[in-house]
Amino acid sequence: MNKLACLFLAFALLLLMTGCGSLMNPIPKNVVMVKKIEEDNKNDAISMPRGVLAVESTKSLGLNALGKYFGVRLSADQAQFEVRVVDINALKGLVEQNIEPDERKDAEAMLKEVPEGLFYLTITSSSNHRYELVLNAGTGEVLKISNPNQANRLSDLKTFELDSSTIDKFLQEKQGVKSEELEQIEKLIFENREVTYVYRNLKDDRVRYVIEEDITQNKIKGFSKDIMALLTWTAKLKNGYPK
Prior knowledge:
The protein is of the alpha+beta class. The chain contains seven helices and eight strands. Strand 6 and strand 7 form a beta hairpin. Helix 4 runs antiparallel to helix 5. The chain is globular and about 45 Å long.
């Protein structure tokens, strides 16, 4: 019996000395923590990988963006949210399907700026005003925001020309971009929706901003930048009716 007890003691000491604690705890601590986090956030519609922002953080960033760009102040309990994640592979698919070959190189370079993918966020207020946003899923940077509530026809209006100084002021104050850094390359006038201005960056010669005008009030109703500017511009050319 004494020999048997000695054997058991020796075996236990061997486990401790060789660091084989995993035999006693077969589930790593980080795995346990991941499961706990998922349970604590089970109301979030999406499980977040790696460095991707949490859904609740995305909602807060979206509300802050409404205040910054539209002066709209909403609390979380005054709004409804729809959140979707578009990962980098899906984005590559969008580029492959929608971007023309001559813009493909620029698009692929822009994809490197969003390695975690994008959040598509829709915020609807209690008064049924809807706002659409696209955020960098890793940094939270706003890459697109629009207020699609207006749907008037250009034929009903006397003017639809947005003063260039209004766009310059917007880019300077909201984006920190000077007008001399950009060049307008296109203005698209859509029959029943809006006027859209497309800008490229003079430094890298890439499409960097798409500005949308609220034709009823001669003010900016939204913008897209970087990869979303390129995708938005392409979509408008394909699906809209530019005059």
